[in-house]
Every structure is written in C-alpha cells, then in structure tokens.
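Please predict the structure of the following assembly.
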Amino acid sequence: MGAGASPLANDRLLRALRRQPVDVTPVWIMRQAGRYLPEYRRVRAAAGDFMTLCRDPALACEVTLQPLKRFDLDAAILFSDILTVPDAMGFGLYFVEGEGPRFRVRPETPADLARLQAVRAAEQLDYVLEAVRLIRRELDGRLPLIGFSGSPWTLATYILEGGASRDFARAKRWLYQEPAALHHLLDLLAHSVADYLRAQIAAGVDAVQIFDTWGGVLAHDAYRTFSLAYMVRVVEALRAPDGALPVPVILFTKGGGVWLEEIAASGASAAGLDWTLSLGEARRRTGDRIALQGNLDPAVLRADPATIEREVARVLADYGPGPGHVFNLGHGVTPDVDPDRVALLVDKVHELSEAYHR
Amino acid sequence: MGAGASPLANDRLLRALRRQPVDVTPVWIMRQAGRYLPEYRRVRAAAGDFMTLCRDPALACEVTLQPLKRFDLDAAILFSDILTVPDAMGFGLYFVEGEGPRFRVRPETPADLARLQAVRAAEQLDYVLEAVRLIRRELDGRLPLIGFSGSPWTLATYILEGGASRDFARAKRWLYQEPAALHHLLDLLAHSVADYLRAQIAAGVDAVQIFDTWGGVLAHDAYRTFSLAYMVRVVEALRAPDGALPVPVILFTKGGGVWLEEIAASGASAAGLDWTLSLGEARRRTGDRIALQGNLDPAVLRADPATIEREVARVLADYGPGPGHVFNLGHGVTPDVDPDRVALLVDKVHELSEAYHR
C-alpha cells in the first residue's frame, strides 16, 4: 500500500496481485478511461489538446473516475500518457490527430544524448503527482489506484524514432550499431522511471504497471539485454530496505509470451499477458510464482453479448481455480467499442468467476 | 523432390529440411527477389503494375533469378504474391502504391460466401505454374526452387478485411460472431491452397512454404482452431498414398513462437521462426522433431558489416552443431537494405557455419 494508506473497501486487485484468496476475480481494463466513452470525448474536446488534458490534475482526475461511475471495476488507473517522462526530459511531446505521438527533438548521434539528465519527478512531473493525490482523495478508500510508466525500452523507442513507428528502424539501428549509447539512454530512463514510480507511490497509488508496449519487437537476446534488464532495475529500485516491494508491480510486455519464464523471474508481482498465450499454460510455466493479468482479445468486445459471455468464461476457465488472476484485456480497449459491452464484460467476470474461488 | 526431378547440384536446403547432414548451413532470404534490388525496381517499373509482373511468367522468372546472380543463395523462391488464390476466387486483387493490397469485392455477410468455389489451380493459376516451369528450366538443376502459398487464415484476413489491415477488426468479428461462416471460407481456402501447392509441386518446385503472416494476431485457442488446423489439412492433402510428403513443407507463422510445440506436431517438415524465439530454445522445445528456419532480425541488415557478421555468428551459435537449420531472416528483407549487406550475410552464413557441420 502507498504511504499513509488506509484499508480499502475493495482490495480484490491487491489481494489477487499478491496471490491471496478473493471472493471473485478482480477486473480492470487497459485504457478504461478513454475514447470509447462519450463523456471522455466531451472532456477531451473541451480541453482541446490531449496533453492539456494530461497536464491538468482536475481534468485527469475527472477522466480517471469516469469509467468507475459506469462499471463495477475493481481498480482505477491514473489517466496520463506513457510519454510524460521523455517529455519532461526535454524531447517536446505533441500529438498529431490520427497519427499518434511525436517529439519535437530527435537524437541523431550518441553525442546528442550527452547532456540528457534523469527526470526528477517531484519537480518535473508534479502535475501527475497532483492528479494522483486528487484521485486518491476522490476515491476515498473505495478502490485501489494503479499508477504506471512506460518501460525504459519502450520510452527509448519513441525518443529514438521521434514518435510512433511501424518498423523501429532507428531504434534498432542504435541497438545493433550504437549499443553503448543506447545503454546510456536506458540507464537514464531506468533512473527516471524508478523515480517517477516512487513518487507516484508516495503520492498514493496502490499498485504500478510498467507498460513495455514495444518489448515484443525485439530479438530474444535483445529483449533480455535492452528491455527486461532495465525493468528489473526499476523493480529493484522500488524495493524498501528490507527488500519488500511497497506496492505490487505489474510488468506487461506486449508479445512477451515466449519470454514468460524470464519475466516471472524479474521480481515483479504480476505479469500482464496478451491473448496469444493460454493463461493455463502460463500458470504451468511459471509454477504460480507470479500473478497473471489478462488476457481477453479486445476484438471480442466488438461481438454480441452471448459471444462476450462465452469468451469471458473461456478466459476464466483457462486460468482455472484459485487466486492470482487479474482479469483484463490483452491490450487496450479500442475506441469503437460500445460501453455497454464493457459493462457486460465486467459483470460477467464477477458473476462467472465466483465458482473458481469457493 | 518434384515430379521428374533430377538430382540437384546444390541440395543443402532439401537436406537441411530433412535434418540430414550438410557441409554448411543453407541460406535463403524471404523477399530475396524484391524492392531492395535496383534490377528488380527496373523490371517492376517497366511492367507498370505489380500484378502484371506476377502474371507474366517470363518476368516472374527473370525476377526470381535476379538475386541468384548476385548472391550465393542455396535456393530460389518463386516470385509471386500470396494473394493470387483469393484473386483467382474472384475478389479482384489490386495494389495502391504505398498502401498494400486491396480487393474490389468484400464479403459483408455469410450469404456473400455461399457462391464461392475452391480454386482449380491448373486452370485459374496457370500463369504461376508456367512461371515455375520456366524458372525450373533456367535453374537447370543448380538450385532448388521453393514454391509457396498464403495460409488459409492469412488469405481469409485479406478477403474479410478487403485488403491489408492493422487491427483485423472485420476478420475477428467473423471469427467471434460468425465462426461457422468463417470455417466454410477456411475450408474452401484449404482446398484451394492444397490444390495450388500440389500443382506447384507437379510443375517442379522442390519445397513449399506456407506463409501464415497473420496467425500471430490470434488468441491461442483461435490460432489452433482457425489457422493451424487448416494448415494441417493442407499438409495432409499433400501427402502421397504412402503418407510421405512429396517435397518438404515449411510452415511459417509470424509471431507463432509461443505455439511452437503445436506447430512441430503439425506434420510439416520445418517451422519458420521470427527473431523473438531463441533457436536453441526452439530446438530443445521441439526435441529436434522438425527442422527450423530463421531467424535473424531483418533490422540487422541496416547495420555495418561487423555487426552483421556478429549477429550471423550469434544465430548460428544459438542453433548450435548438427543438421536441421535453414538460415533465413525472421521476416522479409526490407526495401531500404543495401544489396551488398545481403551478399555479406549469405557469405558469412556459409563461412561461419562450417564449424558446426564437421
């Protein structure tokens, strides 16, 4: 629990992340506060720019709470962007409608990285920490709040590509040809991410997720060296002097199913999984050493209610009885989804999972 | 070997696919005849349209042979497109520059699939078979020729999306909501693909690869039911009355590393692997029951010669000593690659692999 935390009315998420018994399987949804909600689109339109929304603690708080008013979710997740850290480092984040994130400055040579400094979250990302404090006050002990950051590698891809990419040609050119410079950048990012997550925990988040959205594009050995190793550093940096994690840490590498054993050995509390790996197989492969989060294909939410119910049942049966499962999609909910389908999903997870926790 | 085949001067590929000893590891490269070659771009520009190039056996033959004049490759691969089958089924394939393939007709409801018929390759894809015969004559027993098809699922995605897609929203809507109709389509496609590959083998190809480019976007159980099961049907349909495969069959599911055991049990001769899975681990997981093809990250070809040599050495060391490895990239060579880098790659595979075959 975060500093000064009082017991939560609904602590299913935290119990599941610690592999403790629960009454029903907890559920939250990546991008649960997002474009599929009309009330989100209204706030977003009024704010004008996406980053204006992220930088305004009151608006970030409002948007964070929106899905909780509609759905019986077991957690709130801070509304923010994974690229706040490189933005604070001076790369100048902006968004082009329909094209994803971009940075005003892009490093071209190792020398361009020389003057970079790690982020001091308390000063440079105070707007996020203020949002955390506001949300926590509004939640008033009802539900846990999840904080998050991008992984060092994922942040590095956006920095080196100057924004979103399809083939990661630039980031991989650094990886294969300038590995020392890339390690320097990843080291700075690991320090920054650790400082940022520590600050979020101090401000009151009850769990954190590290989004390694682009770890899955790496070769197996490159994943270990350039992505996983730096996430492990972040996890280690969060530990208290006695070695305990102050809050549960979820590590989510999209496309990382082939590396599950290594992820399970990272020291994180839970591994997020996309839909390509069976949760039952994941459980056997990790020997219940780590909690598992996932893993419904988000495309299921475009189907009819009967199909959604059937697929929710399959995911729950795949994991099977006992604790250690946090229900989620395998990736974010898409903007074209009907909110009523999300409501159905959340209710069915609770209803159908009860049998697995008796 | 194909019908009427005479022994090949270079049979490394076929020996490796059968896990027989070789002097050095054979190498070919996905999209080895393609846009990174200036001589390809000249032929392509003169032909005007991409499909004109595919439909002209003399031009397809010329383009197939181009990389063999530059590089010491161990196989030719037929120049064609994976979408010739749905084109022959009447969907009307065309290409928009910079946007990938599109179809003129897109099924909207299950009723739209009712009148579809399986392709009869000998009549409807005679231009491909004529190209195979021409290439084989030109190769004159020097090298094996690889034929190919898209997998039923991969072809179905293009048909149901009406072309390329980023999220496969339509194909997955069919999968989750109209599974019976999708199975009907996949059944037709499996019959068509089997007929097409049988015809390519009769025309003289020495091995075939099934490209399951989009199998990796599926959930684990959906992959088994909607992709792998239909590739297994194709493999079974190719077998001679005595159960033997007439030529080796390579099954390549991009992103399929998590499902390697199931792929190894498919009856195919070899599994193509992308760069996310270690070949050494793949070998342990399959117990040498199947040959393995891959798996250098194509991004390595953008690096300097020393890096390319180092990464080639890592892939060879990862597989280790003994037969059963076909060197390839984990996906197609990209258009921005310098052909001299490909020459270096091919030469280094031969030079550095010798030690593993003593």
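Strands of chain B lie at 76-77, 93-96, 100-103, 145-150, 207-212, 249-253, 270-272, 291-296, 325-329. Chain B touches chain A through 36 residues (CB under 8 Å).
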